[in-house]
């Protein structure tokens, strides 16, 4: 049977069945495909869930690790801050302790001064008692002498009184001069004891004032203090480190300064310790004049003068350069700086001519050689030249005039001369009017009047000279 033999109705039914079968098969295929896709999606979802859980676990573990690191870091930071705070508290405690020790030392010093004042007050009381006894003795002697003179010499009471007063006045002046000398020696000893103290720090508000008798230590303290303040780390270990470093730098500077001075003056073969002392003078001043520059000036001037009069120029420069090295040691050694300088030069192998010139430059010993006179003159020129000691020419001249005016205001003065740039005044008295005892009293009174009326750096030496001349002719 062929398709042509079938009826149209059968063909239609067949086509409908075919379509239905096709649609069913299509729906079946689609359903299978959807189911497959659903199975795949379910597997993928489970895998995503697993991966999400794994990722969440990994994130949780990382968060725990990070949290642990944060806790450890925070703990370390807290411990560091606590350690810093403890160190600050300890530093404050040390500063408070140092301040307490400083106050205790001040209190001890005040107690010592009070005890000294009490002792001196007792001494003054004893001296007043002695003076009162002397006055009583004076009255008794006066009465006895008046009666004796009236009986023996037939003198009037006024004449006897005048004669006796002259004798007693001389005796009292002699006793006064002895007492003044004793007090001056005690004051000098006390000043020497205080001069041996180290650097002192005065905690003035808004400022730190350093003072000390050793200029090198004072410079070390100043530089160390500046560096510590600039650095901000102020604790014992840092202080020791900075001070040690500054001391090393200062020592190098001192050595280089001494070597440079010797090189400039052309002197060689000086002992290294003397070179070091010359360098230390860089931190020493005298009447506001830098002693290092002063030594160079004296060496230069001594060399010029020696060359003019035919002396050894190198010896003159050598003695001039070393003449004040004792000033680098005056806070450690007692005595005049010229003699200290000479002893140091002798100790380190300098020629005796050099040693004598150094010792005589300030008239502590009389100059016996032309070299000594040259060094003395060079020292006086360097110290006395206008501008060397930071004062104007007008003030300088006026001070010299005032010194001579004050000295001339006393009776019995023949001549007076202000010398050594106003550091000394020499007074020649009339020997007929002023006795030896009067000379001591006169020096004291002139010095006191200078102290009351003038303002000046350092000290002024009052030198009273009473000369006795005997003249006779051979015929």
Number of strands: 7
| Shape, per Cα inertia axes | elongated
Query: Which structural class is indicated by helix and strand composition?
Result: mainly alpha
Sheet with most strands: strand arrangement: 5-6-7
Output the radius of gyration.
51 Å
Proper CATH architecture of the largest domain = Orthogonal Bundle
SSE string, helix = H, strand = E?
HHEEHHHEEHHHHHHEEHE
- Bin the helical content: over 70%
Tell me the number of helical segments per DSSP (H or I, 4 or more residues long).
Answer: 12
Q: Overall pLDDT, averaged?
A: 79
Which sheet architecture does the biggest sheet show?
3 strands, mixed
Look up the CATH topology of the largest domain.
Hypothetical protein af1432
As a percent range, the share of strand residues is 5-15%
How is this structure best described in words?
The mean pLDDT is 79. The protein has three domains: 119 residues; 176 residues, Orthogonal Bundle (Hypothetical protein af1432); 73 residues, 2-Layer Sandwich (GMP Synthetase, Chain A, domain 3), CATH 3.30.300.20. Helix 6 runs antiparallel to helix 7 and helix 7 packs across helix 9. It has twelve helices and seven strands. A three-stranded mixed beta sheet has the order 5-6-7. By secondary structure, the protein is mainly α.
